[in-house]
Amino acid sequence: EVQLQASGGGLVQTGGSLRLSCAVSGLAVDELVIGWLRQAPGKEPEGVAYLSSSHGITYYADSVKGQFTISSDNAKNTVYPQMNNLKPEDTAVYYCAAAESRPVRWSAEEEYNYWGQGTLVTVSS
Predict the structure, then answer these.
(1) 29-50 pLDDT, tens per residue?
(2) Closest by CA position to 92, among listed 12, 3, 4, 5
(3) For residue 103, which of 90, 112, 94, 116 has the smallest C-alpha distance?
(4) Residue 63, pLDDT score
């Protein structure tokens, strides 16, 4: 059974940084593709980052390019989005998600069949 556990959220000031984690069990990270999606209040989920460890591929939403980076520690079977220069508009519940094959639309929630519980990031003004 594939399980994902998202963690690392919290309350930060504008300009601060957070590193989120997605701990994966059941399959190796390099046997999956990992997406990070966020849902802000009153909005639909938005894909922000993607990682295929086995292919060395990353994708980012235009809104976070240069601000977020995603990487993995395969020995720990964990994926880490590093979020820098945070802004109030980054406030959202952040979810890690996984699929066993390459998605057609990496940022679309329907592409992923495994989900973590989400972790809340709040950025104060």
Answers:
(1) 999 999 999 999 899 999 999 9
(2) 12
(3) 112
(4) 94
Question: What is the C-alpha separation between 109 and 26, in angstroms, rounded?
Answer: 21
> Is 25 exposed, middle or buried (CB count within 10 Å of its CB: 0-12, 13-18, 19+)?
exposed
What are the C-alpha distances in Å from 3 to residues 69, 78, 89, 112? 23, 12, 29, 13
86: enclosing H helix or E strand: none
- What are 101's two structure tokens? 């094959």
Q: Is 82 left (phi over 0), alpha (psi -120 to 50) or beta?
A: beta
- The pLDDT tens digits for 14-33 are 999 999 999 999 999 999 99
| The token pair that represents 96 in the structure block | 């890690």
